[in-house]
Design goal:
- With 84 residues, this protein is mainly α.
- The protein has one domain.
- The chain contains three helices and two strands.
- A two-stranded antiparallel ribbon has the order 1-2.
- Helix 1 runs parallel beside helix 3.
- The model has no long low-confidence stretch (mean pLDDT 88).
Length: 84
């Protein structure tokens, strides 16, 4: 869900066509939201999530030790919209 500064709510659902862990699904949702926000012209976002692992990896409190998590983290940071 994206909420504009004017409090307009934009909801989007995604379906993953592959097996994934909960944390990978959280990253997929985060990246989809970041890409959507970027396509809409957002310059900065405040992101909320319920995955402690993903949130702490994004904030830099946890290292991404797993190769797949590191790839997701790199992609999320590459989008450069998250407010740290």
């Amino acid at each position: 869900m994206l909420v504009t500064p004017e409090d307009t709510i934009l909801e989007q659902g995604i379906r993953l066509g592959f097996e994934t862990s909960n944390n990978e699904a959280e990253y997929e949702a985060l990246i989809a939201g970041l890409e959507k926000a970027q396509a809409l012209g957002a310059k900065q976002l405040q992101v909320f999530g319920d995955s402690q692992l993903v949130s702490n990896q994004i904030s830099g409190d946890f290292n991404a030790r797993d190769e797949r998590m590191a790839a997701y983290l790199a992609l999320a940071k590459k989008l450069k919209l998250i407010k740290f």
